[in-house]
Model the fold of this input.
Amino acid sequence: MSPTALSGTTPLVCTIEPGAPATVDAEDVHSIEQAAEWLRANADALRDLLHEHAAVYVRGLPVHDVDDFALVRDTLMPERTPYREKATPRSDFGNGVFSSTDLPAAQPIHMHNENSYTLTFPGLLMFACLIAPPEGGATPVADCRKVLASLPAELVAKMREVGWLLNRSYSEHISTSWQTAFAAATKDDVEAYCAENMVSCQWQSDGHLRTTQLRPGIISHPVTGAEVWFNHMAFWNEWALDEELRDALVDEFGVEDLPFNTAFGDGTVLSREELATIQAAYEAATTRRRWGRGDLLLVDNVLSTHGRDPFRGDRKIVVAMGEPVSVLDCAPTVAPSATPVSGEDR
Done:
């Protein structure tokens, strides 16, 4: 265990332990007003820690309900990022505060950068624990700089050259409806959003929607310039599904109508072996800490992925997204587009 003291208005000590994210303890903070002041006083030091470690876990703050969380969120992250192109169920608690996810407790959530498939995504995520589960349920994080550095050169070169494709099929039965995903009332609303945000959309004969979008899988942090692996390529690939579930979905709907699927930007499919390689890189870079009530987790969404471990018992983790970042400000190696990369584009 190695403590690192930082200078600032309030002394701040960051503890680094193997397998755990950088952790800061807030001392002598007894009210939510004091918590807001503590965060305000240490904002610059926390930002420096985020740039160094990609994620920072903060213990000792009296954050006990949604209103408490909204107050500390506004102190540290006043600029919010809208939740666009919704993909998983969340509860909206109002005032820009959401549940981290409403997926079943037994289902792990694989590593991903929030909204890596949108043209503007949150630069900063803030999680807080209002109810700590008795077993499991950590929010693991992984430094995307380390992930990129550990991947095979040929796989990185491929992603650098062509980016990645996200294909989605929207259905009320097995995924998110298009009305929910796009917060849209009509097909015209969806088409207008897609045209503005470089998403190809196709309505099928039965009325359901398919979309495709090309995005860069390697970008650079807009402040530090660090290059990172930034995408949902592994998370939403068909081979990441439970084998029995994948087979059942393919038998019923076909590969083209899986709720999510990914490929390289030129349409080349990701092999099982390549998926395993990417997952292993994430795992090697992953750290986690067991949640305690009132704890915060700050995540630089460009420098770090996040996920969720399965759990038992009650768990209430809330999240807010802020500091919007345009992908065009991140030196993307591939320009975002609504269509795959062609040979002429290279």
The CA atoms of residues 164 and 233 lie 7 Å apart.
